[in-house]
Amino acid sequence: MKANAYGHGIENVFEGMRAADGFALLEPSEAERIRNLGWRGPILLLEGVFDARDLELCSRLNLWHAVHCDQQIDWLAAHKTQQPHRVFLKMNSGMNRLGFTPERYRSAWARLNALPQVDEISFMTHFSDADSAKGIGPQLAVFEETTRDLPGERSICNSAAMLRYPDMPAQARGDWVRGGILLYGGAPDYPEKTADDWGLQPAMTLSAKVIGVQNLQPGDTVGYGSRFTAEQPMRIGVVACGYADGYPRHCGTGTPVLVNGQRSRLVGRVSMDMITVDLTGIAGAGFGSEVTMWGRASNGAVLPIDEVAQAAGTVGYELMCAVAPRVPMVVDSR
Ligand SMILES: *Cc1c(COP(=O)(O)O)cnc(C)c1O
C-alpha cells in the first residue's frame, strides 16, 4: 500500500483490499490513514521508524515495524512502552539497500531478543532480481542459511518472486508475501511477461477527452518544437492531459493510446496540460471522444500501463505513483 497505494489512494483501494492478511507501507502517516478506516489487523512499516518518536505511534497504533540498522535498535532500547512491539528484522542478503549483512544478522537478532520492548521477531529480506534471469537463488540461500534455526515468521517475496517462482517450497516462500504491483495489475517483469500473461487486470485507468481537433496537410507540424510533421492529410485530437497530470513527458510520437477504445498513437511533444493524438482513420473520433492513456477503455479494450512506461523509458510503478493530485479520481466498484 506504500506511496498512497501505488498512487491509487489508500482510501480508494481499501474496500478492494480488505481481505488481505495485512498491509505494508512506508510512512507512519499512511499507517494512521489505514487505522482511521477502521482496520485493526496487521500494518507493517517496511523501512521501520525514521526517528525515535515514530515508536510512540507504533505503540499507540499497534504497528509492526522493520528493523534494518543499529540506530533503530538503540531507539527501541530507549523506548518506554507498555506494549512490546512486533518487529521484522531485515537482512541485506545482497541487494545492498537496507538491512543487516548475514554476518551481523544474528547479533542484531540477539540484541533485539533481549529487549523487553520487543515481543516477536520475524525475518525479512528483499530480492534485487526476482524479475529477471539472475533470479533469487543466491539471496534465498543466504537468507535460509542465516535464519535456519531462528524461531519466527518469514517474509521474502515481492510480486515478481510470487509470480515467477510458483514452485518454491512453502517453507522458502515464507509466512508472508509482500505483493505490490500485481495488486494494481502491473507486470513486474515487463516486457518479458505482460500483465495479460499473468492474468492481471489494470486497477487504474487514466483517461481524458478530446477538447480540440486540427486537420493537417502534408508538411504541417504539431506542438512545441515541431517534433511531428504530417506526411499525409491527418486529423489530430488535442487531449486534456499532460505532464502536469502525470503523463510522462518522455513519451514520444508513436506511444500507444486508445481513442474510443481503439488503438492509436501520440504525435508530437507532451505539453504541460495537453497531448496530441492521431485520429486519422478512427471511425467516429472527434471532439469529446474518450482517450485512454492507460488502463481500460469504456468498450473494455485495455492499454497496459507497462507499454506506456516502456515508451517513456520507465516502469509502470512510476507512472502509477506519479498521477498528479489535480487529476480527479473516480472509484468504480465493479
Ligand atoms: C515495494 C516493496 C514490495 C513490493 O514490491 P512489488 O515489486 O511492487 O511487488 C515488497 N517488499 C518491499 C520491502 C518493498 O519495498
Task: Spell the H/E element sequence.
Answer: HHEHEHEHEHEHEHHEEEEEEEEEEHH
Which regions contain 5 or more consecutive residues with pLDDT less than 50? none
The percentage helix is 25-40%
CATH topology group of the largest domain: TIM Barrel
Mind describing the biggest β-sheet? Answer: 7 strands, parallel
What is the class of the largest domain in the CATH system? Alpha Beta
Structural class: alpha/beta
Determine the CATH superfamily of the largest domain.
Answer: Alanine racemase
The general outline is elongated
What can you tell me about this protein's structure?
Helix content is 25%, strand content 22%. It contains eleven helices and 16 strands. The strands form three sheets. The protein has a seven-stranded parallel beta sheet with strand order 1-2-3-4-5-6-7. With 334 residues, it is of the alpha/beta class. The chain has helices at 2-6, 10-17, 28-36, 54-61, 70-78, 102-113, 137-147, 159-164, 170-173, 305-311, 316-321; strands spanning 23-25, 43-45, 64-67, 85-91, 118-125, 154-157, 176-177, 206-216, 221-222, 228-229, 234-239, 256-259, 262-265, 275-278, 290-296, 302-303. Helix 3 (28-36) packs parallel to helix 4 and helix 6 (102-113) packs parallel to helix 7. It has two domains: 2-184, TIM Barrel; 206-322, Lyase, Ornithine Decarboxylase, Chain A, domain 1. The mean pLDDT is 97. The chain starts with a helix and ends in a 13-residue tail after the last helix. The radius of gyration is 24 Å and the shape is elongated. Pyridoxal-5'-phosphate is lined by residues 2, 46, 126, 158-160, 178-181, 188. Residues 2, 46, 126, 158-160, 178-181, 188 line the site of pyridoxal-5'-phosphate. The modification N6-(pyridoxal phosphate)lysine is found at residue 2. Catalyzes the interconversion of L-alanine and D-alanine. May also act on other amino acids.
